[in-house]
């Protein structure tokens, strides 16, 4: 039986995982009547499970000397780990179509070779459907079948490769970056101090300041240099060794392979010369090379942090406590992660809404800037949806919770950002493959250089070869694409534009044809019922309104919105079927009878009544039973205020704009005439839209802008597909780009950022290639010393980083 006390951990560390606690002190967990602090809800739940299973001896006998090697759960829970608990998984997983998805933080990932290794290893697990590793954010997105493989088995598979994986907690990301910064800063400090000391001695030796010293004193200075360079080699350069070993393990040698070889070779040869007191030493090159490489990695880390911190800040702004309604109109304070769907919560003025839900109060004014970047007040009315992260502005409101934690719109936005960062554009993938192949060729050329110089001048062969390895290290080429892509995604996110497919950065500037939907895309989608004609010989107006209202409550089409609140009267419909591009069909139950009924387009109604001709020439919505037409309705819409200027700018840039709509031709032509759109295709079904777009793709890439349920197929087919934040779920799922602000003018900003990103991406790759190819013959000819090679290589990487940082302005 375990004793009544557990060993303490160092102050400021999580009692469970031994990682740093958040600045607010973390979360409490009670074990053996004593309260301990842990860093997140995950650790809290695992610790509670360990206590419930009477396994507290896990904490008493574990080895805490190396926090990164401490197991997350006892051996007894390896097969039934706490991370498999359903309630716990709700906090960090999403469920869709029978699959679970999760974002894991990976500790120890350093490059794309690490990402490739993890992807290959996890893809072999039965039940794992998709693995996408993002080396930039050090995270992996996984979709799996929970009945085929457990989450604990996935975590164990990653651990087998030597990496530490935990469910990603955005609130802890800042702490993780601080830890990474500290990791680099300490190594930079050691390398910097050693470099200054060794360079002082080296300058004296190289430039003859102490040339009159005898051999013994010179050897003594060499020994001092050896002493100063050793901690640099063993401690500061450690990240490069780990990365090189893992890349070789993955079968994709990265830039750290020649770096490691150069460092070890230079140090080994210099140490040998010091021991025998003969030859040349380059300890200053070892220290300087390591220092400059670490500077580049440190700036790369800062660039990563800047790119991904926006998404993390979204979650950090959510409250930790919610006010849940209990009996008699009273409220209790509960942790947000304890909320359940169906709970009623109260949100006070100025407070942040903690979960998605249905507004129960009559109205509310909310600020959705955290989601859209637009700070203006948005008015919400009873039964409308309010989103987690919005700020309640006016009075206290009541909300019925409809989505919590990973199921909220905010969580899906963050998931889309992560997805964009994990998907590399084609040019980035090409650069990555070039860098990998370049490493192999460098090693081959270095071997050839050594053989040639062994014949020319054996004494210089080693040092010339070392200069080749250092000078041609493809660091700049490896950084060229990731830094540009993350910068572009960061800029787009700040502008309220979500990118799901990074290939868009490369494709969009080549698009010369743009197809646009009409309703809800060119127009506001805010419809009102302007005219209603009722065939009174078949139904009265109240019945028509109630029946239309009952049917349209099952539709997401923009035309349905103003028809959902027509009357207080109620009619009953059942077996509702949505016919994409046509309308809705159902069974109308009245007076004990069941009557088939339809609401939708003229074409849909004419399938039942072929000779019917509408009374209202501009009517778009028709209501009919299988026996009679009951009513026709004109639902009015208006152009978005920024559509005309945006379309004109696109046309001025040489882009042809074509309208595709399922609406009637006369209605579409009215809008097209206002926007000076020459080509209009109306009365189209989803399949017709798809045919038009596919035909146009023969002449080059095309873009599609739409937001309706029936736009899903054509959005999926387009080379670049764009939709709005208010769009139907199917449209958002199919689109490459989501404009959260729901403003058509955001297209101009998107095009501008995309063009600039592609330009910078190409500049980075071109510069990296010019430098690496240009320096190679110079280094092979023996005109570059090792320390000059280190400076040149580092400067080329810094140029790429600084060029990419232009995207952050």
TrEMBL record:
InterPro entries: ATPase-cat-bd, ATPase_P-typ_cyto_dom_N, ATPase_P-typ_P_site, ATPase_P-typ_TM_dom_sf, ATPase_P-typ_transduc_dom_A_sf, ATPase_P-type_domA, HAD-like_sf, HAD_sf. GO terms for molecular function: ATP binding; ATP hydrolysis activity; copper ion binding; P-type divalent copper transporter activity. GO terms for biological process: copper ion homeostasis. It is found in: Cell membrane. The chain crosses the membrane at residues 188-208, 220-237, 257-275, 281-299, 438-456, 462-485, 765-784, 790-808. Keywords: ATP-binding, Cell membrane, Ion transport, Magnesium, Membrane, Metal-binding, Nucleotide-binding, Phosphoprotein, Translocase, Transmembrane, Transmembrane helix, Transport. It holds the Pfam family ATPase-cat_bd. GO terms for cellular component: plasma membrane. It comes from the Bacteria. Residues 100-166 form the HMA domain. It is a multi-pass membrane protein. Belongs to the cation transport ATPase (P-type) (TC 3.A.3) family. Type IB subfamily. This is Copper-translocating P-type ATPase.
């Amino acid at each position: 039986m375990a004793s009544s006390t557990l060993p303490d951990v160092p102050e400021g560390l999580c009692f469970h995982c031994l990682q740093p606690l958040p600045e607010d002190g973390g979360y409490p967990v009670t074990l053996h009547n004593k309260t301990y602090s842990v860093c997140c809800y995950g650790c809290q739940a695992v610790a509670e499970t360990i206590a419930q299973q009477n396994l507290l001896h896990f904490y008493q006998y574990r080895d805490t000397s190396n926090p990164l090697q401490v197991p997350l759960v006892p051996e007894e829970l390896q097969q039934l780990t706490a991370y498999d608990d359903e309630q716990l998984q709700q906090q960090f997983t999403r469920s869709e179509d029978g699959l679970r998805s999760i974002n894991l933080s990976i500790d120890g990932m350093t490059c794309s070779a690490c990402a490739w290794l993890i992807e290959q290893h996890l893809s072999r697990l039965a039940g794992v459907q998709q693995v996408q590793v993002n080396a930039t954010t050090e995270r992996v997105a996984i979709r799996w079948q929970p009945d085929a493989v457990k989450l604990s088995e996935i975590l164990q598979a990653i651990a087998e490769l030597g990496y530490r994986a935990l469910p990603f907690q955005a609130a802890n990301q800042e702490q993780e970056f601080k830890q990474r910064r500290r990791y680099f800063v300490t190594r930079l400090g050691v390398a910097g101090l050693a470099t200054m000391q060794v360079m002082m001695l080296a300058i004296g030796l190289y430039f003859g300041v102490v040339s009159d010293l005898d051999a013994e004193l010179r050897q003594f200075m060499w020994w001092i240099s050896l002493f100063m360079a050793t901690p640099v080699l063993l401690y500061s350069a450690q990240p490069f060794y780990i990365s090189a070993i893992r890349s070789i393990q993955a079968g994709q040698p990265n830039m750290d392979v020649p770096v490691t070889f150069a460092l070890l070779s230079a140090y080994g040869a210099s140490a040998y010369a010091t021991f025998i007191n003969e030859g040349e030493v380059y300890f200053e090159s070892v220290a300087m090379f390591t220092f400059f490489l670490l500077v580049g990695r440190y700036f790369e880390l800062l660039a990563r942090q800047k790119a991904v911190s926006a998404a993390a800040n979204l979650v950090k702004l959510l409250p930790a406590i919610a006010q849940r309604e209990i009996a008699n109109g009273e409220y209790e304070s509960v942790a947000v992660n304890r909320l359940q769907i169906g709970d009623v919560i109260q949100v006070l003025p100025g407070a942040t809404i903690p979960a998605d839900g249905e507004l129960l109060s009559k109205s509310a004014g909310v600020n959705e800037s955290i989601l859209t970047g637009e700070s203006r007040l948005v008015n919400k009315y009873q039964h409308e949806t309010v989103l987690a992260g919005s700020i309640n502005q006016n009075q206290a409101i009541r909300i019925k919770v409809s989505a919590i934690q990973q199921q909220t719109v905010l969580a899906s936005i963050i998931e889309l950002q992560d997805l964009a960062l994990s998907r590399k554009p084609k040019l980035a993938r090409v650069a990555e493959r070039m860098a990998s192949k370049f490493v192999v060729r460098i090693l081959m050329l270095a071997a050839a250089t050594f053989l040639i110089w062994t014949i020319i001048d054996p004494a210089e062969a080693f040092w010339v070869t070392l200069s080749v390895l250092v000078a041609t290290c493809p660091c700049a080429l490896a950084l060229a694409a990731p830094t540009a892509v993350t910068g572009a995604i960061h800029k787009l996110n700040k502008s309220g534009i979500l990118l799901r497919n990074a290939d868009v950065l490369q494709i969009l500037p080549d698009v010369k044809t743009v197809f646009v939907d009409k309703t809800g895309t060119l127009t506001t989608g805010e419809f009102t019922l302007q005219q209603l004609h009722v065939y009174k010989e078949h139904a009265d107006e109240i019945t028509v309104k109630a029946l239309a209202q009952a049917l349209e409550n099952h539709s997401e089409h923009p035309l349905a919105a103003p028809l959902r609140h027509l009357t207080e009267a109620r009619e009953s419909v059942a077996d509702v079927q949505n016919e994409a591009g046509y309308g809705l069909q159902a069974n109308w139950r009245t007076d004990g009878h069941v009557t088939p009924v339809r609401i939708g387009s003229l074409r849909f109604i004419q399938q039942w009544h072929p000779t019917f001709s509408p009374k209202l020439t501009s009517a778009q919505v028709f209501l009919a039973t299988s026996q009679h037409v009951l009513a026709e309705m004109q639902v009015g819409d208006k152009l978005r205020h920024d559509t005309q200027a945006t379309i004109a700018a696109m046309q001025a840039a040489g882009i042809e704009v074509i309208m595709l709509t399922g609406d009637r031709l006369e209605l579409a032509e009215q809008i097209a005439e206002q926007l000076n759109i020459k080509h209009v295709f109306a009365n189209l079904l989803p399949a017709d839209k798809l045919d038009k777009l596919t035909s146009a793709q023969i002449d080059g890439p095309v873009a599609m802008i739409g937001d309706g349920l029936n736009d899903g197929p054509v959005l999926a087919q387009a080379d670049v597909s764009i939709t709005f934040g208010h769009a139907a779920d199917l449209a958002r799922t199919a689109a490459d780009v989501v404009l959260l602000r729901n403003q058509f003018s955001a297209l101009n900003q998107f095009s501008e950022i995309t063009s600039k990103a592609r330009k910078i991406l190409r500049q980075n790759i071109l510069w990296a290639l010019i430098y690496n190819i240009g320096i190679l013959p110079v280094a092979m000819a023996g005109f570059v010393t090792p320390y000059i090679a280190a400076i040149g290589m580092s400067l080329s990487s810094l140029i790429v980083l600084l060029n990419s940082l232009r995207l952050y302005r």
